[in-house]
Amino acid sequence: MASYDEDIDTIPRKLSFIGSSPEDQMAAGAQLIVDYHPSSSPPIASQSINSDENNPKIFQIRKIYKNLIVISVAFTFMLTAYTSILSLQSSLNVKNNIGVNSLFIIYAGTIFSAIFFTGSIIDIFGHKWTMIIGLFAYLLYTLANFYPTPALLYTSAGLVGLGAAPLWTAEALYVNRIGRYHAQHKRQLAETSVTLFFGIFSTFQGTSAVWGNLISYFVLNQSNNPQKVNCGIYFDPKTVKPMNHSGGNDVDEATRYLLFGIFSGITVLSMVLLFLMLNHIQLAKKQSIRQSMKKSVDVLLSMIQCKHIDQIFLIPITIWTLVQSTFLTAQFTRV
């Protein structure tokens, strides 16, 4: 229920686009198309700390640190489950290639939601509830892997795609906002605190692949017969058959249920953390549902009338990033 036009300019471009996840890149790319204008004022990050003085409520310094830790830990939990599940799609769900196909659906849905839904959903539900709703879509995708039929996996993948752009945009705007609150307390430029906060968040986020892969290893290693020679840098896909090669599964149902049960529990824990411990940010500017929906039309029109070369270059870069991510997830982790 708040306008985030000011916040998006404060997010460091390298941290929020190039150095972020594919979902975050999609959201940031869509917002850059909307907010770019050659005659716009300088980013708020380079202005004085008094630029936020009209906000209704500024968090205390302890609450700022608490919210940063809560959102960082919550997203680390979510990504621990989600990134591990993505890595397993080309191994556990090989039949009819439904695992890899679901990855394409996720990223295609992310493009769609970044254009049509992101601004409206954040304005209607606010930052906190947008993140919780987005995490619920990720939870549905995790649950679909208990019984990975095409209907369940593709539907849940589509929901993840629709929720990904609002989720990551809301996260970026929330971290940006508490970073600006921190700058006011410390009497320094907003850019300094925002960059620091995104660095801390990215540090937590970067560890998720470690924890997720460790969980997958210890659970799956109990039921699989690990290859001692044809693996790692010596792996030759021509001399080994993938799991599920005959429509069956080298992982028994009990192991599958245990693995995805753990991942589901971790995702639920991330939602509970946000719900119970993350403070809601009430911004000064409020917009009606009609004004929020108009943003989606403005985004579409801005893409049709795209004239600036840097905006045009965002399109192939974004497409390449998503294709690259899907390919690496499907092939690099294939066993």
Automatic annotation (TrEMBL):
GO terms under cellular component: membrane
InterPro entries named in the record: Ion_channel_UNC-93, MFS_trans_sf, UNC-93_regulatory
Location(s) in or outside the cell: Membrane
Main location: membrane
Transmembrane parts of this sequence: 67-86, 98-117, 129-147, 153-175, 196-220, 257-278, 299-323
Swiss-Prot/TrEMBL keywords: Membrane, Transmembrane, Transmembrane helix
Membrane topology reported for the UniProt record: Multi-pass membrane protein
Record family assignment: Belongs to the unc-93 family.
Protein name: Uncharacterized protein
Organism: Adineta steineri
